[in-house]
Design brief:
This protein is mainly beta and 306 residues long. The protein has 2 domains: 31 residues; 271 residues, Neuraminidase, CATH 2.120.10.30. The chain has 2 helices and 23 strands. The strands form 6 sheets. Strands 2, 3, 4, 5 and 6 form a 5-stranded antiparallel sheet that branches. The N and C termini lie far apart (65 Å). Keywords: Signal. This is WD40 repeat protein.
Length: 306
Amino acid sequence: MKKMKSYILMMCCYFPISLILSGAYCHKEKLKYLDQTPPSLTPEIFAPGHISIKNESEFGSIFNKEATEFYYGANINGMAEIRYTKLEGKTWSKPKVLLSHDKYSLNDPYLSPDENRLYFISNKALESDDAKEDYDIWYIEREGNKWNTKLINAGSNINTNKNEYYMSLTKDGSMYFSSNKDAVENRQHDFNIYSSEFKQGTFQKPKLLGNSINSTAYEADVFVSPDEAYLIFCGIRKEGYGQGDLYVSFKDVTGKWSKAKNMGKLINTEGHELCPFVTQDGKYLFYTSNKDIYWVDASIINSLKE
């Protein structure tokens, strides 16, 4: 009988605790992604009034793996700055400026696989705080729970005297990005997509992706999935719906990229779609459309795979 009473007492103690822990876990899960109601296959503006604000332009964005930190670019009077918000206890902090300057822009943040680097683009001059004509890829490093805001250039293997734009990283740290470094003088808008392996802490000489991705038109703002199963980019092509559309390409078993496919009118509009990013859990596709950040159920990507 004593054993039975002890068992009953133990179970009575266990279940309330387990229910509390379960409730806390569910509550934390709900709070992820700024506590927003998940989207369907119809794109929606992300966090209107909090992140996507009227009369402002919001661009490249990224969540950390836990979906408890959010970084994004905002254009204020022609100058871009990087903002962030994070989950603090049971609430999300008011967005704060992480990086800004009165002479040069900073935009398109992207976290490294270990989340100890935050990459971005900037037109900061190498040796001064002046602005220059072209954009480079830079990064800052995390020190403990804070970011050291000293800007570090990604190096001459990546950056040139032309523009290097919007980057994303694979799970091994290799970088995909766009550049107009090979554009002819009268076609400076001809950006192409490149990849650079990350070996022994250094980015290697970039390789130009093939003609299933690149063309004689504009290809930029590339997101690659961490396992390199697919990539999404912004292209400006005659068959497009608007000023710039999102395209997707899938890698086959031989390592070749499929011919890039327009993601369709559900995503693309008469405006400009750019800055794609898929969350680490594979659930949501984020992108910029007409100066706001949108999100949509990421299953739309696989629906385009042939």
